[in-house]
Amino acid sequence: MKIIFNTGVFGKHGIERALSNILLELPPAVNQYILHQIYELDFKSQFLDEINSIVTHDCALPRISFWGNLHMNRRKSIFHKLIDSIGLLKIHSLIAENINRHQADIVVDYDLSLLRSAHLINAPKIGVFHFRPKRFRNGGANKLRRIGERLHHYQKLVVLCDEMYQEACYVWPHLKDKLIVLPNPINLPLLIKKSEEPVKLPAEITAGEYFISIARLTHQKNIALLLRSYKLAKELGCTWPLVIVGDGEDKNILTQLSADLAIMENVLFLGYQTNPHPYLAKAGAFVMSSREEGFPVSLLEAMALGCPIISLACPTGPTDILQHGRLGKLIAFTEDNPHEIGKAMLEMSNNAGHRKNYSEESKLFVEKFSSPKIAEQMMSLLRDIASNQKS
Length: 391
Description:
Blueprint: E1 2-7, H1 14-23, E2 32-39, H2 48-51, E3 55-61, H3 66-72, H4 78-86, H5 88-100, E4 106-109, E5 125-128, H6 140-151, E6 156-159, H7 162-171, E7 179-181, H8 188-195, E8 211-214, H9 223-235, E9 242-245, H10 251-260, E10 267-271, H11 277-282, E11 285-288, H12 297-304, E12 309-312, H13 318-321, E13 329-331, H14 339-350, H15 352-365, H16 371-390
Helix pairs in contact: 9-14
C-alpha cells in the first residue's frame, strides 16, 4: 500500500512526536509511506531525522511558493491576511491536487488540516482528532454543522480516548459509526534512552525535589494558573522549586507574573529543550494546568519515567490517563482557582509514600500505550479500510 500521512506543518510538539512514534513501528518493507505537509516551517523539526529513512517527504505549499509564503506570513499585515483569506479556495484545490498526484491507497489526515480539501481528495481518508471536538463550538451551531458535513468525507475518525469519543458522539451523533478510539503512542525504549542522557541540573534544584511543567507558554496551557498555585503552595510551606520547560508567546507575561508574585527566585524558566526527558526523569512531580488538551503525551511520558503527576481534569485526556485519580493527583477542573493545585503540590512534596505508589502503578499502566501496540492497531485500521475499498 501507498499511505500518505498528512499534517498542516511538521514542527516540534506533541502531534509530531506521536506521528513519529507510529511511523517508526510501521512495516517499511510492506508499504510506502509519504509524510505530506501542507506548509513548510522556517526550521527543521527534530523528529525528521528519526523518520527520514522511513518516509518520502512532500510539501504542497513550500515557503518558496506564492501561496505558501503568503500563508506563513499572514500575521504580518492586513494585506497578507486578506489575500490569504480570498485565496482559500485556490489553496484547498492546490492541496488536493498535490495529494491526488501520488495516487495513494489511503490518506491519514493526522491533524485534520485537510478538512476543507477532503471532498476533493480521491483516496479513502482517516481523520485524527488531537483536540477536543467541542473546540469548534466557538463558531456556534452553524460551524459545528459545517464541520460535521466535512467529516462525512472521511471513512474513519480517530479519537484518542473515551472522553473524546463521548464528546464527539454528543456533538455529531450521526458520525458515531465512523469513530474509533486509538490513543497516542509512546516509544518507551527511546524515551528511557533519552531520559538517561547526562544533564547538569541548575544549582538551585535537587534531583527528586522539584516540580516540573513541560508545555508551550500559551493561553491553552494556562501556566499563569500554575504560577499562582505554586505561590499558594509556598505560602503553605512547600520548599520545592518549580521548573518550567517550554517557550511561547506568553513567556514575557509569565516571567513578569513570577516577579509580581515574588516567586522568581524559586521558578526556573529553562526555555525550549530539544530533550526535556532528563529533567522529567529527575523531577519529584509533574504538574499540568491546561485549559484543555486532546490526549497529552507529556502525561504518559512522565508516568513511563516514574514521575508522579498532579493534573487538572481538563477536557480531554487527563481523567482517562490518570484513571479518575488512581494513578495521580487529579484536580477538579478550573481555569482560575489555584487553591486545589497548590494544596496538591504541598501534599505531593511532603508524602514520599504517595509518590512511590503513583510511580510504580503508572509504569505498569503506560505499557498499553507502547508504540508497537498502537502502530499495529493503526496498521490494522489501514488494512481494513483499504480492503473495504477494493471489495
